[in-house]
Amino acid sequence: MAVKIRLQRHGSKKRPFYFIVVADARSPRDGKFIQKLGTYNPLTVPATIQLDRQKALEWLHKGAQPTDTVRTILSFKGVLYLKHLLRGVKLGLFDEAAAMTKFQEWYAEHEATVVKRQEEHKRQQRESRYRPVVKRVEEAPKAEAMAPSAETSTDETPSTEA
User: Fold this and answer.
1) 17 with 41: CB under 8 angstroms?
2) Which of 51, 57, 118 has its CA nearest to residue 86?
3) What was the pLDDT predicted at 144?
4) 49 φ, ψ to 5°?
């Protein structure tokens, strides 16, 4: 039985909200599933993702194949990186404590960047809301309009040499 980790759509029309589920590959998108792993809301900035990391890791070890979007979500939340580190532990490259410290360092750095993105978005929203509309009157066209008329008046004067 082929098992996939995929998104199950909920929410109303034009307002998507997804459950991240483990389901048989033959079942329909919004049909029967084996286990719910979390939620994904793409409407917030940045997108809100709630995921049970341990359950997702267990299903990946069992051979469940994530869809492209879910693979991106798992990568963003660090599940695929944790799987990579645990593979290194299994091969004997380093111990589990070292793997967990590497993951904790990455996770702290990742959360800092997410918070930075949120604050940047909020700052941009505030700036766009309170920007006053100021119209400037351009002085350059008036100056150009006056300059050619002064030149034409000097050229049009009759010469007395003739």
Assistant:
1) yes
2) 57
3) 60
4) -130, 120
| CB atoms near residue 42 (< 10 Å) | 15
Is the pLDDT confidence value at 129 over 90?
Answer: no
Model confidence at 53, in pLDDT bands (50, 70, 90)? very high
Q: At which residue do the structure tokens 């069992």 appear?
A: 62
Give one word for 15, left, alpha or beta, with left for phi > 0 and alpha for psi -120 to 50. Answer: beta
pTM listed for this prediction = 0.74
Only one residue has tokens 């998104």, namely 7
d(CA 66, CA 59): 10
Residue from 23, 10, 100, 84 nearest 59 by CA: 23
Cα 56 to chain centroid, rounded:
21
What confidence score (pLDDT) does residue 142 get? 58
